[in-house]
Amino acid sequence: MPMSSSLRLGVNIDHVATLRNARGGKHPDPVRAALEAIAAGADGITAHLREDRRHIRDADMERLKAEISKPLNFEMAATPDMVRIALGVQPHAVCLVPERREELTTEGGLDVVGQRESLEPTIARFTDAGVRVSLFIAADPKQIEMAAKLKAPVIEIHTGAWCDAITDGELIKAENEWQRIAAGVKLAKSAGLEVHAGHGLDYATAETIAALPEIMELNIGYYMIGESLFVGLSETVKQMRAAMDRGVAKRARA
Ligand SMILES: CC(=O)[C@@H](O)[C@H](O)COP(=O)(O)O
Ligand SMILES: NCC(=O)COP(=O)(O)O
């Protein structure tokens, strides 16, 4: 079995839809991208149905559910309308994320401490419907402890601040963010949570974070879709998988 079998790669195809929507037509098709990513070795597909529908649309989610052979991770804000849509699609999992309409991208983690009362029944509804719930949170001990109390089986740690600090050359900030992530994933695992991570990852950061033995899944999109313009999506999936393998190999030596 390849080393990376313990670390799943979820490919986020949102930004194929961004490109499609730029001309209002059907090309490029995010479902075709999902099928190609799976053929190249992705373990699952992630797609974010934003309230403003800036990229993925309702019909994309329905087609993804019908056409892909691997688990669909449906990212969404925990609003009543989105809960209704997701329950209709019946994905393998939902990942509850914060959303602000004016943001360029998902800027931070969900405040599960502040939103405890509204999240509790939402998590229960999905759990009762057989849909796994993941909470997209910062690597903050209070948020992680609350996620465990809310009985969500999975958390996804928001890696955006760490990745941005690296890109911006802010080395002290990057190191602080990394220490927070490394401590957070340990705490989460010890609290019984399955730990995923994602946002802003590229080959180098995916390799680094893959070395943390607590992490079971990485969800990666924007960088991969960008890279695929140059080398194709299949090759990008293979290169990302190779980067993750290199990280997982470091687990064994740690
Ligand atoms: C929640 C998350 O990290 C991804 O869905 C990411 O947000 C990709 O979509 P956007 O670029 O629209 O934020
Ligand atoms: N949940 C994170 C995700 O799906 C991908 O984020 P990004 O790689 O597009 O930033």
TrEMBL record:
GO terms for molecular function: pyridoxine 5'-phosphate synthase activity. Keywords: Cytoplasm, Pyridoxine biosynthesis, Transferase. It is found in: Cytoplasm. It comes from the Bacteria. SUPFAM superfamilies: Pyridoxine 5'-phosphate synthase. 1-deoxy-D-xylulose 5-phosphate binds at D14, H15, R50, H55, T105. Pathway: Cofactor biosynthesis; pyridoxine 5'-phosphate biosynthesis; pyridoxine 5'-phosphate from D-erythrose 4-phosphate: step 5/5. It catalyses: 3-amino-2-oxopropyl phosphate + 1-deoxy-D-xylulose 5-phosphate = pyridoxine 5'-phosphate + phosphate + 2 H2O + H(+). Its main location: cytoplasm. Its EC number is 2.6.99.2. InterPro entries: Aldolase_TIM, PyrdxlP_synth_PdxJ, Pyridoxine-5'_phos_synth. The active site is at H48 (proton acceptor), E75 (proton acceptor), H199 (proton donor). Pfam families: PdxJ (PF03740). 3-amino-2-oxopropyl phosphate binds at N12, R23, G200, G221, Y222. It is an enzyme of class 2 (transferase). The record marks E156 as: Transition state stabilizer. The keyword Transport does not apply. PANTHER family: PYRIDOXINE 5'-PHOSPHATE SYNTHASE. Belongs to the PNP synthase family. Catalyzes the complicated ring closure reaction between the two acyclic compounds 1-deoxy-D-xylulose-5-phosphate (DXP) and 3-amino-2-oxopropyl phosphate (1-amino-acetone-3-phosphate or AAP) to form pyridoxine 5'-phosphate (PNP) and inorganic phosphate. Homooctamer; tetramer of dimers. This is Pyridoxine 5'-phosphate synthase. The gene is pdxJ.
